[in-house]
Amino acid sequence: MIAYLTLLVVCGMPMICIEMAAGRVTQSGPIAAIAKLCPLMKGVGLAGVAASFFMSALYAVLFSWAIFYFFNSFHGNPRWATCANSWNTAKCSEDPYTLVKSLYGGFQNPNAPPPPLTLRFPNVTRPTVSNWTDVNVTTPGFRIPDLELDMTPRPRVPQGKDDSSWVSYTLSRHTTTAQEFFDHKLLEVSGGIDSPGEVRWELLASIGLCLCLTYVSLRKNTFFTGRIKYVLSLAPMLIMIAFLMRVMTLEGATEGIMYMFQPNIKEIKNARLWIFALAQTIHSLGLTLGSNYVVSSKNKKQISVMRDTVISVFVNTATVMVVGCVVFGTIGHICARWRQRIDSPFLHKDPGIIFVVYSEVIRNMPVPTFWAVIFFFFLICVAMDSQVTIASTGVQALEESYGRFIKQRFQGHGLFLLFICVACFITSIPYITQGGIYYFQMTDYYVAVLALIIISFLELCALGWFYGGHNLLSGQSEVMHHVPYIYLRICWGLITPLVFVAVVVCGGMSLSRLRYRNKHHFPMWVDVVGWILFGIIVSVVPVFVVKALHKAESSGIIQKVREALEPQMDVDQPTDFWEPKPLVVINNPKNGVNHHASVLKSHRYKGYSKGDYEGETVI
User: Fold this and answer.
1) Given its phi and psi angles, is residue 49 left (phi above 0), alpha (psi -120 to 50 degrees) or beta?
2) Is 385 labelled a binding residue?
3) What is the pLDDT of residues 178-201, one digit of tens each?
4) Which of 66, 181, 182, 263 lies 20 to 30 angstroms, CA to CA, from 355?
5) Is 316 annotated as a binding residue?
6) So where are the chain's domains?
7) Which cysteines link up through disulfide bonds (predicted)?
C-alpha cells in the first residue's frame, strides 16, 4: 500500500491531470487529442486503444466469472461454503485447524508427538470426499480425508517456540472451500497451458451476454447511463462498507489490515512490487485507455480540471482503501484460522484471489445466500459498466479519428460496433477453456501491466515534454482555478518521468519467467507469445513516428522532427472557446455579416435571444 500511495502522488495525480487538461483543450478523445498537440506521438493514443481491446476481453471474462458465482449463490448455503460437493477433493476442509488440533490433543505439551494413527488408504488415484474412510486413533470418533494428514516424523518443537509447527505443515497441504470452488468448479483448471482442455460453455454464454449488452448499450445509449451509473457506483461501495464492518469482527482481521499498511523493507526493495503498484495506479485512475480524455472533453468550462483531478484521485483512493482493508482483513482471518503466516505463499496470488477472498467473506456473513446474491449482482453491474466504458472510449476514439474509413468499410457506427464486439468475443474464447487461466495471466502481465506502463510513459513524454504541460495550463488560465502550478510542472518535467524510468529499468532487470502460483513454470513459448503481444501494441508508436516524419515537408531529419512536433491547434483561446457549440450558423443577413461556418454558442449562451437567429440557416 505504501508503494501504491507513493506512486499515486508522484505519478497518478500528475498523469490524470495532464490527460484531463489535454481532453479539455482539444475537446477530443485520446487519439485525436495527442495528434493535435503532438502529431509525432499520435501512435500513443492508438496504442492505448489497442491495449483497451485486450482489456475489454479480460473484463468480459471477469463478467462471466461473476455471472457464474451469481447463479451458484441461489442455494441454502452458497455452493462454495462446504466440502460436500462432487468437485471437492480430499484436500478440501471447511475448518481443518479445529480437526487437527483435536487430533493432536490440544497441544498441552508442545514437545509431545502426535497420537498414533492407523490410516486405511482407498484404492483410488484421486480421493474425494466420497472416498473418505474411518481412521483409527487413540481418541475415537474422528474422520479425516485419506492421504492428507502427513504423519512423517517431524523435528520436535523446542520449548518456548511456536507449538503449531505440525499443524501449520499439515494445514498447508489443505485448501479452502472457496479455492476449490474456483479451481475445480468455475475453471475446471487443467494441468498446464499445454493442455487447454474444453471450452467452459457456461462462461462462453456469459461472455456472449456481456457483449450483447455492450452492443445494445452503445448502439441505443440506453443502459448504464445517467442515474443508473450513480447507483452502480454507490451501491457496491455500501456493500463493501458492510463487508468491512463484518470482517473487522473476525479473528486475525486486524493483523491482516496492519500488514497492508506496515512498511516492509524487504518488499519495498522488490522491483516487481513497484511494477505492479504502478500498474495498479494506472488501472485505478483509468490512465492511458482514454476515458479521462473523453470525460473531460464533455465537461463545461466552469468545472475546474484540478477539481476533477482531486475528486477522481480521492474517490479512487478511498475505494482502494476500503477494498484493500476487506481483502487483507479476510486474508488475515484465513491465515489465522489456518495457522499460516500472512506473507506465506499459502494463498494463491492469481487473478482469482478476489473471488476466493470475497467468497470467504460471504461465507462468514449472517444469511450468506442473501449477501452472495446482492454482492455478485452488483459485481456483475460494475463489470458491465467497466466493459461499456472501455468499449465506448475505444470506439469513439477510432470513429473520431478514422470516421471516413469506418463509414466506407462498415457503413456506419452500428456495423463497426458489431465488428468490435464479435472480435472481442472471439479473442476471449481462449480465456474460458480449462487452461484459460494461464492465458489470462499471460495477457494480464504482458498487456495490462508491462504494455500500459510503457504507453503511459510515452504519453507523459508527448504531453509533458514535447508539447509541454505548462502550455496546457496556460491555455486553460481561465478554466483551471488555483492550480498547484509548481507541483505539476516539477512532476511533469522531472519527478514522474524519473520514477517511470526507475521502475521500468529496475523491474526489467528483475524480470523472470512467468509462473502460475509460484509453482507452475510456463514454457518458453508462452513468454515469446507474451512479448509478441507487447510488441504489437507498443510498436504502434514508432510506426506512427516514422509516418509523421515521412509526411513532414522539411528536408533534414532535425527539421522533420521539429515540424512533426508542432501542434495542430492553438490552445490559447478566449473563454468563449470552452462553451459547448452544437449550432453552426451560415449567412446571418440580420447582422449584415456572412458567417462561413461561424460557430456560435448553444441556446444556453446568455447573450443571444431567439430573434437573433431569424433568417439564418442552422445545421
Assistant:
1) alpha
2) yes
3) 888 998 899 888 888 888 889 999
4) 263
5) yes
6) 2-77+200-541, 96-174, 579-618
7) 83-92
